[in-house]
């Protein structure tokens, strides 16, 4: 289950069928949500008097997913300092610890392909994935192979094998889902396998506020909790219309606002992962601003139509096409830019190298610009490109790592590279981490750490990666310490050592 803190929120971690190559003859197994099967248990008019028959039909295709991860912790108290060579290991040998995670998934083919969330199987920070185990509803367990992962959409595909065909379900067409439609969610919240909850579609194309090309979800009031991540959201035709992914909550538990990745988003990505194809996304290289009432009034255009370009990245597709700051983009390849269909989403779904028209307003005049869409960089590359030490927190992309760091220190940070060093006015070769976000209620904030603060070492150990800091946190925890020493400085300030208390574990 992933967590979103925008509202102090917790983020979890007869439709069209998905076409897969299987090792079984045609007709060897019928999908659990085949239309003929579902018509026997759900009346055409809507929800049944009970969800029991529908659940019994679909539940065999929903699985429990557990992982084992290996975490190596250096227990040498002098590691990374000049005393390390003088005192050798200092009596502390590196130790390996094991961590686990739980989540949900569902079978999409008779030969064992499984869809889940990437964050269900992706270890945080310094951990390495050792194994993935899939358990069916009858308790049978299978070792699973990771076929493919796509962190940007938070999707992953696994594969299990046996001689007999597996029960499976089809993707449906989420574009036909309507607010008020009945849905059921099946998954493994808190490890309680096969838990079924029901509700309605509360909203479609819902934005969570986290930004990005895939920040558009089906919202439901069906109860979703930690461990539901990766599980299916079914409509009353038994189709998978969503993949349960997140919740918004002030407490971390379900309060009736669950978010699921729409099937129309997930299906083409899953097909590519199954086929072993690389996921390529379009990219313009521009920073954008949604059009609120003030911007709309200043530009003399309707609100909630179009997005304003704030800046253009040098050398990227937008600059090459002649896009400029203050251009208002109204349409992408004939499709209107709206809050539900934003510029990032539209461009990301265009193949790199494709030439498309952009309809813009510049200096009060409408015009069309032709652009050859570029290839979207990785999340890490984007975080480095867009880091602005003077920007407010949340205006730059959040780093993809740092789960433990956020939990224990109330910080998010990314490694310093050459580009960030130039932005901060640092000398070439400077190493460490630069803070991108700070919990204002945490001890780090009270000690003066803010966005743009540079962290060079932790407990005397030099830092180059997020994993280095998380290893130092784990070592401090293992020694029973309640705080950690950080060597920090502002971009142009003196370097000082501060002690930051580790958050209490619940």
Write the layout of secondary structure elements.
Blueprint: H1 35-39, H2 52-58, E1 62-73, H3 83-87, E2 95-107, E3 113-116, H4 118-121, E4 128-135, E5 141-150, E6 155-159, E7 182-187, E8 195-206, E9 217-220, E10 232-235, E11 240-247, E12 258-262, H5 263-275, E13 282-283, E14 286-290, H6 293-299, E15 307-312, H7 317-321, E16 328-332, E17 335-336, H8 343-348, E18 355-362, E19 365-372, E20 374-375, H9 379-386, H10 403-409, E21 411-415, H11 418-424, E22 433-438, H12 443-446, E23 454-458, E24 461-462, H13 466-478, E25 483-489, E26 496-501
Antiparallel strand pairs: 1-2, 1-4, 2-3, 3-6, 4-5, 5-6, 7-8, 7-10, 8-9, 9-12, 10-11, 11-12, 13-20, 14-15, 15-16, 16-17, 16-18, 18-19, 21-22, 22-23, 23-24, 23-25, 25-26
Detailed description of the structure:
It contains 13 helices and 26 strands. The chain is of the alpha+beta class and 506 residues long. It folds into 4 domains: 35-159, Trypsin-like serine proteases (Thrombin, subunit H), CATH 2.40.10; 174-265, Trypsin-like serine proteases (Thrombin, subunit H, Beta Barrel), CATH 2.40.10.10; 282-375, PDZ domain (Pdz3 Domain, Roll); 379-501, Pdz3 Domain, CATH 2.30.42. A hairpin with a 2-residue loop joins strand 18 (355-362) and strand 19 (365-372). The two termini are 17 Å apart.
């Amino acid at each position: 289950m992933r967590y979103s803190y925008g509202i102090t929120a917790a983020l979890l971690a007869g439709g069209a069928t998905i076409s897969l190559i299987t090792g079984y003859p045609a007709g060897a197994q019928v999908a659990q949500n085949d239309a003929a099967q579902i018509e026997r248990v759900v009346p055409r008019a809507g929800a049944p008097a009970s969800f029991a028959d529908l659940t019994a039909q679909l539940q065999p295709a929903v699985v429990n997913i557990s992982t084992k991860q290996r975490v190596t912790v250096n227990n040498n108290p002098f590691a990374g300092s000049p005393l390390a060579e003088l005192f050798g290991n200092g009596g502390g040998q590196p130790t390996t610890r094991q961590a686990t995670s739980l989540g949900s998934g569902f079978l999409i083919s008779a030969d064992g392909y499984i869809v889940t969330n990437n964050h269900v199987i992706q270890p945080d920070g310094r951990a390495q994935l050792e194994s993935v185990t899939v358990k069916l509803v009858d308790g049978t367990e299978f070792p699973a192979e990771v076929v493919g992962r796509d962190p940007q959409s938070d999707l992953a595909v696994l594969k299990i094998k046996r001689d007999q065909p597996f029960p499976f379900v089809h993707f449906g067409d989420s574009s036909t889902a309507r607010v008020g439609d009945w849905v059921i969610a099946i998954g493994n919240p808190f490890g309680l396998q096969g838990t079924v909850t029901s509700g309605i579609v509360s909203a479609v194309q819902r934005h969570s506020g986290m930004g990005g090309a895939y920040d558009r979800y089906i919202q439901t009031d069906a109860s979703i909790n930690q461990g539901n991540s990766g599980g299916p959201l079914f409509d009353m035709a038994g189709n998978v219309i969503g993949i349960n992914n997140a919740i918004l909550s002030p407490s971390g538990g379900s309060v009736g606002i669950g978010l699921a990745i729409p099937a129309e988003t997930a299906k083409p990505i899953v097909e590519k992962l199954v086929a072993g194809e690389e996921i390529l996304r379009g990219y313009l290289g521009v920073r954008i601003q949604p059009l609120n009432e003030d911007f709309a009034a200043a530009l003399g255009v309707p609100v909630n139509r179009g997005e304003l370009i704030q800046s253009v990245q040098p050398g990227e597709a937008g600059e090459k096409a002649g896009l400029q700051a203050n251009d208002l983009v109204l349409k992408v390849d004939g499709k209107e830019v709206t809050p539900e269909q934003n510029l990032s989403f539209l461009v990301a779904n265009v193949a790199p190298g494709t030439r498309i028209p952009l309809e813009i307003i510049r200096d009060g005049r409408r015009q069309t610009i032709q652009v050859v869409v570029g290839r979207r960089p990785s999340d890490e590359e984007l975080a480095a490109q867009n880091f602005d030490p003077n920007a407010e927190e949340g205006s730059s992309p959040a780093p993809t790592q740092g789960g433990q760091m956020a939990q224990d220190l109330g910080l998010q940070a990314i490694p310093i590279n050459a580009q960030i060093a130039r932005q901060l006015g640092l000398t070439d070769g400077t190493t460490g981490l630069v803070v991108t976000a700070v919990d204002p209620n945490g001890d780090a904030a009270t000690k003066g750490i803010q966005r743009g603060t540079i962290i060079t070492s932790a407990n005397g150990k030099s830092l180059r990666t997020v994993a280095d800091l998380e290893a130092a946190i784990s070592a401090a925890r293992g020694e029973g310490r309640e705080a950690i020493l950080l060597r920090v400085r502002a971009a142009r300030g003196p370097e000082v050592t501060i002690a930051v208390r580790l958050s209490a574990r619940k």
